[in-house]
Write a structure and sequence with these properties.
The structure is a single chain. The protein has 9 helices and 5 strands. The chain is mainly alpha-helical and 196 residues long. The chain has a domain of 127 residues: hpI Integrase, Chain A (Orthogonal Bundle). The strands form 2 sheets. It has a 3-stranded antiparallel beta sheet with strand order 1-2-5. It has a two-stranded antiparallel sheet with strand order 3-4. The radius of gyration is 17 Å and the shape is globular.
Amino acid sequence: MRDDLGRDGAEERRHLTVGRVDSLARAAASHSLLVHVLAYCGLRFGEAAALQGSDVDLERQRFRIHRSVTLVDSKLVYSSTKSNKGRDVPIPGFLCELLANHLDGHPADVLAFPESRGGAMRANNVRSRWWNAAVEKSTAPEGLTPHELRHTCASLAITAGANIKTLQRMLGHSSAALTLDRYGHLLEDDLGMVGD
């Protein structure tokens, strides 16, 4: 049985409903676009932090995800994605206009979501500077992490009818089996639909 957080009783992965995503985005104020991108596009935090203007194709409504940035020994290290493969991620229509405004006049080789001094965001800084406060002010569950918005994206995509192969490509998983292992429990409601 699922509770109003969208959590399955047998599953530890939490995901938000659309209403709770909107609540979190409002509480995040100037960072609301990033909250929406993480929740509706399913990027890993390091992938979002490494996005440049040239990685955003608003005509095709796609992000081109081909690198990530991580803090290693107090230094930001850019690398290929976790699967070592680039991928295209769909951008929902309502985000395209917001991204167009956000990136207006933005050089193609500059980070799309830089931290205040222009460098890549660091997850720990984001959490201490604005994320934790936004979670507290919103209807999101206590202790929600940015990575849980990736689970939110998967849940919302499945609810919208995305098949496992599409979800695998979108999330950048190495196999559909991995995607099924992580999110197959969300498909259990389909058994009733098939029976009907």
